[in-house]
């Protein structure tokens, strides 16, 4: 009962991007079977299903489905050897269309692409090379696709050269697998060589690089493999975006947990020490060096707990904005995570979210920072902008009253106060890329702080007035408060 409700909710949220070829018309297996004799043996007809289906646990069936989908709907020739990761086309297309939305959103300036030509970097393109093939054929984008394994490079190149109409747009780049990036502290040398099978470490301590992120929290789970972006992106290169479907898992056992599908996948493709959390943390590390050489840095994230962790890492390294989306396919959810270091663009008027209740989590707080400190920071944040506030220590709330001018003051000054260290002009832009037109007289809201578990607090805001003009103002101010608190409490020392 609970399960079916949950499933229904997911289905209601919508599982497929509206621009996706398959959003209105799911693949027609009967038609494909009639057109492609090689696909026929895999198609099952049963009175239990309204439409013909395939055995999702059969690698040969899922690979043949991908081949015919790419051929029939995308005019692409494609193949992978046995056991390599087999992509699901509708699902991978969702990521491409989300990137398309990000690139056309104008939240950050388009400083990179020339003459409307979009150039992307696919980290770990795999033997299947699926993202460059889809991005080039659907949208005319150019790509560099990187990978570490010989088999991925060989087959990605084959998949590119068997499609001469787009081959010029895709470069496959081998990452030197013997050029392991140094490991940040956490792993014992012994564990390192066992887990990665690539790192040749004597029993001596490895010299540690000074990195802007503090990874102590994920002890023993750090990425110690070959370079990811730094050392692979060339000195003179700029990209509109990078994308990545990272090795999600820490072990092959974990990778094999879903017996309901067979998409293949070798250990090199699916597993890395520390799993996706460590791999994406390395992308974040690299992005702090490469900054404006990419308009958007993005990655797929497989676990919600990792998504939360990575978002708080991002605010800690001074990004100007973070965007997320949920990709739902069947019963599986994945998340898209995007960030940028470019200054936000000032815009005139875009509708704002009109919410009366908002909340966010502050995670990874140090021991000395409890609910009371955060509450005090909330009060001084608003007092600093001249708003009238009352702190109630027994209910752990701050009641705030703001006039139109007070709100203006927050929007005009906030970025100067909280983001002194980043290259960001004060604008009226919110993290959602919207701007505010105040048409209310006074705003009353309550901020409450709740302890969840040690080191994690929930901050809630509730609007006391009920008109929608106020709720637009409240949404923006609450987002500004969130940025300020994250900046104050979630930034780790360099
Ligand atoms: C989960 S697979 C994704 C393959 C393909 N992009 C897809 O979506 O199906 C992850 C890929 O990352 C590659 N990989 C692992 N470490 C890498 C690194 N440091 N740089 C580039 N690729 C890497 C693996 O060899 C593997 O092909």
From TrEMBL:
It holds the Pfam family Methyltransf_10. Residues 1-20 have a biased composition (Basic residues). Residues 1-23 are annotated as: Disordered. Its EC number is 2.1.1.-. Transmembrane segments: none annotated. GO terms for cellular component: nucleus. Coiled coil: none annotated. GO terms for molecular function: methyltransferase activity. GO terms for biological process: rRNA base methylation. It is an enzyme of class 2 (transferase). Belongs to the methyltransferase superfamily. METTL16/RlmF family. PANTHER family: RNA N6-ADENOSINE-METHYLTRANSFERASE METTL16 (PTHR13393:SF0), SAM-DEPENDENT METHYLTRANSFERASE (PTHR13393). This is U6 small nuclear RNA (adenine-(43)-N(6))-methyltransferase. It comes from Canavalia gladiata.
